[in-house]
Amino acid sequence: MHVIGNLGKDCVVNNVNGKGVINFTIAHTEKFKDSHGNSQERTTWVDCAWWTDRTNVSQYLLKGKQVYVEGTPEVRSFTRNDGTFGATLTMRVRELQMLGTKNEGSQTTTQSGYGSNTGSVPSAQSSAPAQANPLPAANSSTNEPIDDLPF
After folding, report:
1. What is 2-30+41-112's CATH number?
2. d(CA 89, CA 53)
3. What is the pTM of this model?
4. 5: which residues sit within 8 A by CB, 6+ positions away?
5. How many whole angstroms separate alpha carbon 85 and alpha carbon 136?
6. How many degrees, rounded to 5, is the angle at CA 125 between CA 123 and CA 128?
7. What is the C-alpha separation between 55 and 63, in angstroms, rounded?
8. What is the secondary structure of the chain as a DSSP string?
9. Which of 31-35, 92-96, 113-117 has the lowest mean pLDDT?
């Protein structure tokens, strides 16, 4: 299952039996038109558990941030105090991508879950422009043509 949405609150990092788990909630909003052609919105809240040793990414999982998560869904049912039944949608996260917020540019970072060490932690981007390799001068001593294709 895949979900794109915004975090409803800052994540919480827990330690369960010596393993790190990051818990967070995502609000996924679906926009659609009803049978009368009126625009409607439906928000589904997904409780996420990401079992990982890379808990340092938690500093980026803040309320309002947009993320893409992929994982295994599970519906949990329960009985409320008033005797009515309820259900929650939970997900055990395998992959996480930071997408940003509505006001930010899209910065994509992939993280892998289930305690693996794959993925990368978001890092500050340098404001200096990237230096391209200069092309050889036109009067170069080589007889090879200068090709402007990068491959």
Report:
1. 2.40.50.140
2. 24
3. 0.63
4. 26, 27, 28, 29, 46, 66, 67
5. 73
6. 155
7. 17
8. -EEEEEESS--EEEEETTEEEEEEEEEEEEEEE-TTS-EEEEEEEEEEEEE-S-GGGGGG--TT-EEEEEEEEEEEEEE-TTS-EEEEEEEEEEEEEEEE-TTS----EEEE-TT---B----PPPSSPPPPPPPPPTT-S--SPP--S--
9. 113-117
Place of tokens 């005797």: 83
Compute the distance between CA of residue 114 and CA of residue 62 in angstroms, rounded to an integer.
Answer: 21
CA atoms of 47 and 22, how far apart (whole Å): 11
Hey, where are the domains in the chain?
Answer: 2-30+41-112
Closest C-alpha among 34, 107, 22, 121 to residue 65: 107
Residue 146 has pLDDT above 90, yes or no: no
pLDDT digits (tens, 9 = 90+) for 9-51: 999 999 999 899 999 999 999 999 999 999 999 999 999 999 9
- For residue 79, is pLDDT > 90? yes
User: Does 108 have pLDDT greater than 50?
Assistant: no
pLDDT digits (tens, 9 = 90+) for 55-75: 999 999 999 999 999 999 999
